[in-house]
Amino acid sequence: MKELALQWSCAGESQLGILSPAASESSSDLGVLIVVGGPQYRVGSHRQFTLLARDIAAAGHVCLRFDVRGMGDSGGAARSFEALDDDLLTAIDELQRHAPQVRRIVLWGLCDGASAALLYLQRRGDARVAGLVLVNPWVRSVLSQARTQVKHYYLQRLRQREFWAKLFSGRVALGAIGELLGALKRAFGPGARSAATVDAHLPYQARMAAAWQAFPGRILLLLSGEDYTAKEFLDHATQDPAWANALQRPGLDRQDCPGMDHTFSGPGGKALAARHTCAWLERLAAGS
Fold first, then answer.
1. Closest listed residue to residue 281, CA positions, set 62, 42, 118, 101
2. Which CATH number belongs to the domain containing residue 236 in this structure?
3. Which is it for the CA torsion 247, 208, 215, 61, positive or negative?
4. pLDDT tens across 152-164, in order?
C-alpha cells in the first residue's frame, strides 16, 4: 500500500497528515478523517490510528490521519478540543483535493476527538459529512465525574467482602472513606441539583447534544466496557434532558465492547475496533 504525506496551511500554520492509501488506489466515494483526541498526534496510542487507517484503506476507503495545530508535526499553539473547527475544515478540504472521487466524509473520533467532531458539525454544519464514528465520547463535568465514581467504582467496592475486611482491620485509610463521602456529596448533596442544571447547559455538552440530535447522517457509537469515560457518557446521555432519546435515534448503530479499555489497547482491541468500523463503513457505502 502506498501512503502519501501531506502538508497544508490552516490559518497561517502548517499542518501535516498521512493519506492512506494514495488516492489512485481507491475508487470509493467515502473518505475517513481520523480526529485525534487528547494530547496525541496522528500515530495514536500503541499505533492505534496508524493501524486503523491502514485497515480502512485495505477495506477500500481513503483515510487521512493528521496532526491538529500545536501537536505532532503541525505548527501553531496547542488548543482545546473545543477549538478545532478550522483544523477539521482544512483537513477535509485537503483530503478531497488529493482524492477528488470522495464526496462523503466520515469523521472518526476517540474521546474528545469524538466531541470535537460533534462540535464541528454543530457550528459548521458541513454537508459533506455523511457519517460519524464516535468512540468513548468525552462529556466530563464535575457532577458527571462524581456520579460515575459513585456508581461504577465506590458502589462496586462496597459490595466486595475484601473492602469490608480491610475496613474493619484498619487497612483502609480514613482518607478513602473521606473520598467516598465527598463524591456522594458532589453527586447527590444539596448542591447537586443546581449543579445538574448548570452542567446540562455547559456550552460543549449542550452543543454536542444539539449536533447529535440534528445530524441527518449515520452514527456508529463504540463504547469500551472497562472505560469510565464511556460509562460517564452513557450516564450523561440517559439523564441529561438535552440528550433525550439520543441513544434511540434513527441511524444509530451502537456497539458495546466488553473488556476493552479507553483506547482498545488490550489483546485484539485494535482489531475489534477496526472490524466494527470497516463493517459499518461497508454498510454506509452500500446505503444500508
1. 62
2. 3.40.50.1820
3. negative
4. 555 565 566 665 5
182-236: per-residue pLDDT in tens?
A: 544 544 555 444 334 434 344 699 999 999 999 999 999 999 999 999 999 999 9
Q: Grid coordinates standing for 220?
A: 456508529
Same domain, yes or no: 240 and 158: no
264, three cell numbers? 482498545
Do the domain assignments include residue 166?
yes
Q: Are 87 and 68 in contact (CB under 8 A)?
A: yes
Same-domain status, 27 and 124: yes
Cell output for 162: 475484601
Give residue 244's domain range: 4-141+207-286
Domain assignment present for 201 = no
Q: CB-based burial of residue 116 (10 Å sphere; 0-12 exposed, 13-18 middle, 19+ buried)?
A: buried
Q: Which residue has the cell 440528550?
A: 243
Q: Count other C-beta atoms under 10 Å from residue 223's C-beta.
A: 20
pLDDT in tens, 36-63: 988 899 999 999 999 999 999 999 999 9
Q: Does residue 202 lie within any of the structural domains?
A: no
Please write down the HEC assignment for all residues of 14-46. Answer: EEEEEEECCHHHCCCCEEEEEECCCCCCCCCHH
Over the stretch 235-262, which tens digit does the pLDDT of each residue have?
999 999 999 999 999 999 999 999 999 9
Evaluate if pTM is beyond 0.90.
Answer: no
